[in-house]
Specification:
The structure holds two protein chains of two kinds.
Chain A lengths: L1 E4 L2 E4 L6 H7 L7 E5 L2 E2 L15 E9 L2
Parallel strand pairs in A: 1-5
Antiparallel strand pairs in A: 1-2, 3-4, 3-5
Chain B lengths: L3 E3 L2 E3 L3 E4 L6 H11 L3 E8 L19 E4 L7 H13 L5 E4 L12 H13 L3 E6 L3 H9 L6 E2 L13 H10 L5 E3 L5 H9 L4 E4 L1 H4 L4 H21 L21
Parallel strand pairs in B: 3-4, 3-10, 4-5, 6-7, 7-8, 9-10
Antiparallel strand pairs in B: 1-2
The chains are: A mainly beta, B alpha/beta.
Chain lengths: ~70, ~260
């Protein structure tokens, strides 16, 4: 199945939770914020929420800025 | 120095520091420490999935510094509100530097989109610090809807030109019922001191530190500039005059 992550398509072999996806990408869940299909996904739901075909994810983090 | 109070919270430092543009995380942290600041701004951007970099948060001690996320990148109120909510979801306290700067050439803040976003974010319980041009009427309107401060620019972001908008900033300070943060364009400690002498409550600096030959040393200098300016303001500055007034006595001369 295909999802979109930060504007780019990504293939997933099997149903994956958001938490598992973040882990596979090497991202610390405590340091990112997520939108799933244009709605903010609370951190507490990362472990339970299963991604489905066509989902769009935006993963953001803090960076330097004025 | 007398404490700074924003949204009921007390701070010792009247210098806020931006974390952008530093040549390294080490330079950024050294500047933050030398500045004595307690509030630092950060931005929110997409993670580069193919090349996830070291997280900025690994370098900032959250016990020591209050993170103030900005909404830079927002082109309108909708995007600004979205960024503020994402920052809160990322674990920040609900403070936000509301920054809507769609024009990439001068990065001037859009007053209409800023006001629209401020209304929404104040209602959602954010502590809103809006970045604005030095427009006294806009400043008043934002305070009336409950922003925690107003943040008028001295000059466009990154220009280091100092208080080009000083006359308007003076009016904003005179009319303000919330702290006034002079933010953007401060290029030298003397600019920061001038803002504080005028009665600004605090200043925000980023570029001047990041591009300095020695960022930590520049941050220490800015710290002194802000303290000197605040002390002078509290000590009561003398008035300016057109005509000279002698400093030495006008009697007892060695001539008749």
């Amino acid at each position: 199945m295909t999802i979109t992550v930060n504007g780019k398509p990504k293939e997933l072999d099997a149903p994956t939770t958001v938490a598992a996806l973040l882990e596979s990408l090497g991202l610390d869940t405590a340091r990112v914020a997520l939108e799933l299909n244009r709605e903010i996904l609370p951190r507490a739901e990362f472990v339970d929420r299963i991604l489905t075909n066509g989902d769009t994810l935006e993963i953001v983090q803090f960076v330097g800025g004025g | 120095m007398d404490p700074l109070i924003i949204a009921g919270r007390r701070f010792k430092s009247r210098l806020l520091v931006g974390t952008g543009k530093f040549s390294s995380n080490a330079a950024m942290v050294a500047a933050m420490e030398s500045s004595g600041c307690e509030i630092v701004t950060v931005a929110l951007r997409r993670v580069d999935i193919d090349n996830p970099a070291d997280s900025l948060l690994a370098h900032i001690d959250r016990e020591k510094y209050l993170l103030l996320p900005n909404t830079s990148g927002a082109r309108d109120a909708v995007e600004a509100v979205r960024l503020a909510r994402l920052a809160r979801a990322a674990g920040c306290e609900p403070w936000v530097k509301l920054e809507v700067t769609p024009d990439p050439y001068y990065l001037l803040p859009d007053p209409i989109e800023t006001f629209k976003a401020a209304e929404i974010l104040v209602k959602e319980g954010f502590t809103v610090l809006p970045y604005i041009n030095a427009d006294p009427v806009l400043a008043k309107r934002l305070q009336e809807i409950g922003t925690a401060t107003v943040m008028p620019l001295g000059a466009p972001i990154g220009t280091n030109k100092g208080l080009k908008t000083r006359e308007q900033i003076a009016i904003i300070i005179e009319q303000a019922i919330v702290p006034v943060v002079v933010d953007a364009g401060l290029g030298a400690p003397s600019h920061a001191a001038e803002a504080m002498e005028m009665g600004a409550d605090c200043v925000l600096v980023n570029t001047a530190l990041a591009v300095a030959g020695n960022p930590a040393a520049m941050a220490a200098a800015f710290r002194k500039g802000v303290e000197a300016g605040r002390e002078a303001f509290l000590a009561g500055l003398g008035e300016t005059r057109r005509q000279a007034e002698a400093s030495s006595p006008l009697t007892g001369f060695l001539h008749d």
